[in-house]
């Protein structure tokens, strides 16, 4: 699923870097379209939510955990997760998808992540 626009209450979840320099990929798209904030790496920013994917898998895993916790605390929002970590960061869905296992109902994962999670 390619995300081109958002409805009210929807949030675009993208991969960022530690400095919040949203210069390429989904981060640039979030900056241009969905209110991502230059200089903010993690968390809710406009109609987007950043997860640092460039500082290693341990950081990505911890931020994915915090994201899922945030989503559980905000059932009024619907989070559309991109293939975080699988673009510029260079990871595969097999490396990243398990970090998003067991999401609440308001989190929509990419098909590639669901395929990995349901295989296990």
Keyword list:
alpha/beta; globular; 120 residues; 4 helices; Leucine Aminopeptidase, subunit E, domain 1
Gist of the model:
With 120 residues, this protein is of the alpha/beta class. It has four helices and five strands.
Structure description:
It is a single chain. The chain has 120 residues and is of the alpha/beta class. The chain is 32% helix and 18% strand. Helix 3 (93-96) links the parallel strand 4 (78-81) and strand 5. The longest helix has 17 residues, at 57-73. The radius of gyration is 13 Å and the shape is globular. The mean pLDDT is 95.
Cα-to-Cα separation, first versus last residue: 23 Å
Structural class: alpha/beta
Number of strands: 5
The DSSP helix count reads: 4
**CATH fold topology:** Leucine Aminopeptidase, subunit E, domain 1
What is the helix/strand order? Answer: EHEEHEHEH
CATH superfamily: Leucine Aminopeptidase, subunit E, domain 1
Biggest sheet record: 5 strands, mixed
As laid out across the biggest beta sheet, the strand order is 2-3-1-4-5
Task: Give the secondary structure arrangement, pairings included.
Blueprint: E1 10-16, H1 25-33, E2 43-45, E3 48-52, H2 57-73, E4 78-81, H3 93-96, E5 107-108, H4 111-119
């Amino acid at each position: 699923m390619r995300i081109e626009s958002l409805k009210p209450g929807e949030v675009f979840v993208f991969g960022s870097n530690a400095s919040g320099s949203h210069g390429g990929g989904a981060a640039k798209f979030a900056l241009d379209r969905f209110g991502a904030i230059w200089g903010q790496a993690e968390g809710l920013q406009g109609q987007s939510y950043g997860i640092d994917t460039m500082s290693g898998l341990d950081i990505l895993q911890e931020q994915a955990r915090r994201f899922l916790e945030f989503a559980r605390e905000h059932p009024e929002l619907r989070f559309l997760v991109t293939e975080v970590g699988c673009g510029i960061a260079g990871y595969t869905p097999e490396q990243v998808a398990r970090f998003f296992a067991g999401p609440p109902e308001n989190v929509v994962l990419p098909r590639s992540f669901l395929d990995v999670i349901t295989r296990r």
